[in-house]
Write a structure and sequence with these properties.
alpha/beta; 4 helices; about 15% helix
Length: about 150
């Protein structure tokens, strides 16, 4: 079975307690600080509706403290290395991981092909973003691409 990513979906490797978990979901789930993201829209002059309790499982900020709960909510979007083999984008190109969210190290690695949103701008306090070598950062046994 081939997984086809839509324009608004992303492949993410989440790391927590040294475990590695693949997800295929909407990009917006992985904006870790939704409050900062919404504030940026407001500052740019856009109307942003109030988030409400349903916005991303009632978690406006996702960090190492609530990672377990967040990843539990994300279970319907979990995938495996085997299932991701042959994963393609909406235009038929092979898909690659867009993010590595490492809750242990409090870092987000961002692939150069990820254009929006600017994940590095909306990180929890004390977190950092990296733009180098995302493919090499994935352990060889977890790689699904050629």
């Amino acid at each position: 079975m081939t997984i086809h990513l839509s324009d608004d979906e992303i492949v993410v490797l989440a790391i927590r307690d040294l475990g590695h978990y693949w997800f295929v979901s909407e990009r917006d789930y992985w904006v870790l600080d939704l409050v900062a993201w919404e504030n940026a829209f407001r500052e740019a002059g856009y109307d942003v509706p109030e988030a409400g309790e349903d916005e991303r499982f009632g978690m406006p900020l996702v960090d190492e403290r609530n990672a377990r709960e967040f990843l539990e909510f994300m279970k319907p979007f979990r995938s495996t290395t085997q299932a991701l083999r042959g994963c393609q984008t909406f235009d038929g190109e092979d898909a690659l991981p867009g993010l590595i969210v490492d809750f242990d190290r409090r870092t987000v690695d961002i692939g150069p092909w990820v254009q929006s949103p600017a994940f590095e701008k909306y990180l929890p306090p004390g977190w950092s973003a990296n733009f180098r070598g995302i493919l090499n950062a994935v352990p060889p046994e977890k790689r699904f691409w050629q």
